[in-house]
Design goal:
mainly beta, 5-stranded mixed β-sheet, elongated, disordered N terminus
Length: 420
């Protein structure tokens, strides 16, 4: 009954439109990209005209999503009215459990989109064609039942996986094995994450003269995070990370420490916008495979870091910025000159005009904390095969592009032939 009551409230609260001014159709711009199955939605919802240009639409539907602690997805559906419907704006939510199949997820999302379109369609000449139906769970007495499900797992969700591969030809062969396990628990107050993974890879190359070059890499890690909510804007937590990596000359390392985070926007708005600042302190113990460039085989370090992250998803596009600075608090003879790292990354996807959008981004890392580098020279085989990290003072990347769409603005027809 709640959906029916909601629909009635929408109809009563929406601005009135005279019959002669009612539009004969509803144009919908579906803005969800990878978050939904657009072809399925277009094929199921036939009472609206889907358009490719947001400026030509009556309703701009922005769908954003984020994961839940049980492996599911939470979808936020922002219905933004335009033109004759500029005064009608609404936001609905849909939760898909981690056990849902892709088909169950897309059908549930499509049903919620249909619910949100009711208030707009009722202001068009299509209103007489709308029929509302409600499936009511009833008991034997014809009364609506309400059930509270008992959760024997107490919100814990576990996942175990693994695999391997093998390939070869006349002069080379390779194989690898990997495994992973995770345990997560998410409530409004607490967020707990545990994961462990490992990988072993071996490659062999016959280079002639009865010579064979072998490359072996191993990586493994255990990670745990515990976070406690402190209201709409604050949270505190801590992390524990254990790692072994042949690429980083690390036989074993343990990193642990607390952190505090502040979000300028309420966490409830994180699917649309967030601007987070996080400060943390970590104690780091490392045991190296080989003697490092600082002539040590093990060391303990105290490091602190400050991170700022901005993410915005709006009708005009998306923008993101991430900056992190980390610095040693111990071994001051090194920390002030050679033991810090600065990471910057910016990306944007902006619609500039009708059918025209641009995307661009850039990233840069100033690297002064490669304390794990071995004192001995790295072999040519390790360099060419990428099995050892090389010394570097920086890392950068840049990307740019555009997209211009023109022609028919309508895209109602779905034709899956040949997979395109």
């Amino acid at each position: 009954m709640r959906l029916f009551a909601l629909a009635l409230v929408f109809l009563l609260m929406a601005p009135s439109v005279s019959a002669q001014d009612q539009p004969s159709s509803l144009r919908l711009f579906l803005d969800c990209e990878w978050a939904c199955d657009q072809e399925f939605i277009r094929s199921e919802i036939t009472l609206v005209d889907f358009v490719n240009d947001r400026t030509a639409s009556d309703v701009h539907l922005l769908v954003t999503t984020e994961g839940t602690g049980s492996g599911g997805r939470v979808f936020s559906l922002a219905f933004i009215g335009q033109r004759d419907f500029a005064a009608l704006t609404d936001t609905l939510g849909f939760v898909s459990p981690g056990t849902a199949t892709d088909d169950e997820r897309r059908r549930g999302l499509t049903n919620m989109i249909e619910n949100g379109l009711v208030r707009y369609l009722s202001r068009t000449t299509l209103a007489p064609s709308i029929e509302l139906s409600l499936v009511r769970p009833e008991n034997g007495n014809g009364e609506v039942t309400e059930s509270i499900e008992y959760d024997p797992w107490n919100y814990w969700v576990f996942s175990v996986g693994g695999g391997g591969d093998v390939s070869g030809e006349e002069s080379s062969d390779s194989y690898s094995v990997r495994g992973n396990i995770s345990a997560n628990r998410t409530t409004e107050e607490w967020k707990i994450r545990l994961s462990a993974n490992g990988r072993y890879r071996e490659r062999n190359f016959d280079i002639g003269d009865d010579r064979t070059v072998s490359s072996i890499s191993r990586n493994g890690s255990i990670w745990m995070m515990v976070v406690n909510s402190l209201g709409d804007h604050w949270s505190v937590g801590g992390t524990l990370f254990m790692n072994t990596s042949s690429e980083r000359n690390t036989d074993g390392s343990v990193t642990a420490g607390p952190a505090i985070e502040y979000n300028v926007f309420p966490y409830s708005e994180s699917t649309r916008r967030e601007f987070r600042f996080q400060y943390g302190v970590r104690l780091d113990y490392r045991n190296y495979d080989e003697v490092t460039i600082f002539n040590v085989t093990e060391e303990s370090l105290l490091r602190h870091s400050l991170q700022a992250e901005l993410d915005m998803q709006q009708t005009w596009g998306e923008v993101g910025f991430d900056a992190e600075f980390s610095h040693l608090l111990t071994n001051f003879d090194r920390s002030l000159t050679d033991s810090y790292r600065l990471e910057l990354d910016f990306s944007a996807d902006v619609r500039l005009a009708r059918g025209f959008s641009v995307f661009f981004g850039a990233g840069y890392e100033l690297i002064r904390d490669q304390l794990f580098l071995p004192l001995s020279d790295i072999s040519e085989e390790d360099i060419l095969l990428g099995t050892r990290r090389l010394p570097t003072g920086y890392d950068f990347n840049a990307r740019i592009g555009f997209n211009y769409r023109f022609g028919s603005i309508f895209n109602n027809v779905v034709n899956p032939r040949f997979g395109f």
